Amino acid sequence: MPLPLRSAVRRGILPRIAGLGLILASAACSLDYGAEAPDELGPGTPELLLSGVRHRSISDGMVVFRVEAERAEIHESRGYTVLFDARFVEYAEDGSVATEGRADRIRIDTATEDAEIEGNVVFTSAREKASFATARLAWNAAERKLSGGDDALVTVRTEDGTELRGAGFEADAARGTFLFGEDVVGSFTPPEPEGEP
Questions:
Q1: Which of 3, 58, 105, 186 would you label with 42, given CA atoms 20 to 30 Å apart?
Q2: pLDDT tens, position by position, 8-48
Q3: What's the CATH class of domain 7-28+47-143?
């Protein structure tokens, strides 16, 4: 049964991170490497390597999203950007932290904005009072879906006592739901009806 997900994924955390990949890739296009640049780079060599990357999205004079990474590799000719040791924060309208998270590695396809998120993936939502943890997730921008795959265990914990872990995780940002496909274990605390203690 799909469970409600009104948090980070639907509001655009991953599209904003993918947008950073596009910004970094376009920055690589505008740099003049000069006559000393090699004609061809070896396999796997990025065209641009940045360290201490920081990006802020600002709306109406307020920071609404922030992402930082220890390192960014822009592979412009191959169409992707990789962020290493990435951390992100989404802010609510009142300036409080709405969602925050981290991952060891985020690979962003600059054409499709799809993303592969790997290594110690954790994000928490203050709005939903929930946290998600796993080793790997994939973001499909066209379908607005986040998935963990059949072999990646995802753990969801909420402040009301729900703790679920399973494989085949999928969050549908358009519908605002998430579900597990198989091997689900844990406990579910149903929400209290409104107006009751």
A1: 105
A2: 444 455 555 555 555 555 444 444 444 444 545 566 788 98
A3: mainly beta
